[in-house]
Specification:
Pfam families: MnhB. InterPro entries: CPA3_antiporter_subunitB, MnhB. With 230 residues, the protein is mainly alpha-helical. It has one domain. The protein has 11 helices and 2 strands, in the order H-H-H-H-E-H-H-H-H-H-H-H-E. Strands 1-2 form a two-stranded antiparallel sheet.
């Protein structure tokens, strides 16, 4: 695509966004007044759906289309990482690297702490996702905890065990499925905030596993063929 064409497309999108923003801003209540229609309606709708956490009600029920955009942005980031960090050209994957060396040499204390913290951290992630409709937290925060928790095995020096625990193809499929389920529920206006939180938690967790996994593959498993410059 030529530079002039890209500029014209950007200008059209920017003009449309500016027009929508201006129209919305002109219709806002005056600052400092006693009228807060959005806040009153948001709280009323949250209580109507039995969601004590108004923020989660706004994110997953009243403005689910915004959350769909955030979901797709994260999914696009994961797909971009998979495409950009794939093994290409002169690169080769050292299939026997982790099997030859096995777990890294780390202190027994660090290894024990890593193994003990893994199930606890996973449990905390599930708790944050499950209680997103009642307390601070939710699918995004819990998904981040879940997606990074299993990588405690790497900190404990056992990368082969981490590879067995997180098969990348399974997480790729699960991420796509979770994103599709969330979009379907949001378009259907299901209003089930706990279910939407769960779908977000699974999608975010899987996306982070894919992102970190691809970086690990580049750093630990991909090598240059003999004789090739690095």
């Amino acid at each position: 695509m030529r530079t002039r064409t890209r500029i014209l497309l950007f200008a059209a999108g920017a003009a449309g966004s500016a027009a929508l923003f201006t129209a919305g801003a002109l219709d806002l209540p005056r600052f400092g007044g006693a009228l807060h229609p959005y806040g009153d309606r948001a709280v009323h709708q949250a209580l109507r759906e039995s969601t004590t956490n108004t923020v989660s009600s706004v994110n997953f029920d009243q403005r689910a289309f915004d959350t769909i955009g955030e979901e797709l942005i994260l999914m696009a980031s994961a797909i971009g990482a998979v495409v950009l960090l794939r093994v290409v050209g002169k690169e080769a994957e050292d299939q026997g690297a982790t099997h030859r060396h096995g777990p890294a040499e780390v202190s027994d204390a660090l290894r024990i702490v890593g193994y003990l913290l893994l199930p606890v951290t996973l449990l905390i992630g599930v708790y944050v996702v499950a209680h997103g409709a009642q307390s601070p937290g939710g699918g995004f925060q819990g998904g981040v905890i879940l997606g990074t928790a299993i990588h405690l095995l790497y900190l404990a020096g056992d990368y082969p065990a981490l590879q067995r625990l997180r098969p990348i193809p399974v997480f790729e499929s699960t991420e796509a499925l979770a994103a599709g389920v969330f979009v379907a529920m949001a378009l259907a206006a299901a209003g089930a905030v706990p279910a939407l939180n769960g779908a977000v938690g699974v999608e975010v967790g899987c996306a982070l596993v894919l992102l970190i996994g691809k970086f690990f593959e580049q750093a630990l498993l991909v090598r240059e063929p003999p004789g090739e410059p690095s």
